[in-house]
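ARCHIVE RECORD
Type: protein–small molecule complex
Small molecule: NAP
Source of inputs: curated submission
Record status: active
Notes field left blank by submitter.
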Amino acid sequence: MNLNHKVVAITGASSGIGKALAMDALSRGAQVAVCARNLEKLQQSYPQNENILLVQADVSKEEDCFAFIDAVIAKWGKVDVLINNAGNSMRALFEELDIKVLRELMDVNFWGTVCTTKAALPSIIKNGGTIVGVSSIAGYRGLPGRTGYSSSKFAMQGFLESLRTELLYKNVNVMWVAPGFTSSNIRNTALAADGKAQKETPLDESKLMSSETCARIILDGIEKRKRTIVMTSQGKLTVLLSKLLPGFLDKMVFNHFAKEPNSPLKK
Ligand SMILES: NC(=O)c1ccc[n+]([C@@H]2O[C@H](COP(=O)([O-])OP(=O)(O)OC[C@H]3O[C@@H](n4cnc5c(N)ncnc54)[C@H](OP(=O)(O)O)[C@@H]3O)[C@@H](O)[C@H]2O)c1
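STRUCTURE (tokenized, with ligand):
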């Protein structure tokens, strides 16, 4: 599927991977609709362009997901590609965690995907389009200190795999992608045990994959109608070892995350 003249809707696109996806899709000739909670930030993120539609929407609210897709259809008459990108993360041990953090991540990462997909599905079926979930390695392998994040991404992938199989003979491609660590705002907004943003990143963001590279890989995958993409060799190895040597991987994953600055993990 060439994205030229296609209508692409992207959730969570005022920064990071979502913004890079929107800019790259525009350069491929698509008409692009984006949403985020903060409209002002969204407006500051994009130059004036007749091929871009900015919508204020919180995907944790079912009515906002439907309103976003209604706005896209009112403007361009259809949706060819939906990229469920909006997401938030966390860092805290489950034993110290307020349950509301887990609910909040499920509401955005999982329910946001479900509701926006439900809203866009009739148009996507009609147009033989594509539904994408921006998942994570955390959707293949439970990560310590990220119980809510991993749960939400596992749920997203289970939902999308079921849907993909339901739609197998309807000319719709359902795809999920697992970026590795990518430079973005996500670690600053990640929730701590009390549900407040941690406001710092434990990683050197300049050494991570850029959001632009991540976006290019996702859009190339959409054009080739891929099933899944696990982006990094570290991610591919993790997926393989989780099947072959899950007990060994428990220790590797623990040790990896215990080394992060201010890690909550202690032996
Ligand atoms: N960066 C990584 O290392 C990495 C790795 C694997 C997977 N991912 C996934 O990539 C996706 C994009 O993350 P990112 O790294 O680009 O993070 P980011 O820079 O923090 O961007 C997140 C975007 O989502 C929006 N958003 C957050 N909550 C929302 C809500 N309830 N409704 C609508 N929009 C919402 C934010 O804008 P507002 O705050 O204005 O709403 C922002 O535009 C996420 O699903 C994440 O899980 C990221």
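CURATOR ANNOTATION: The two ends are 49 Å apart (CA to CA).
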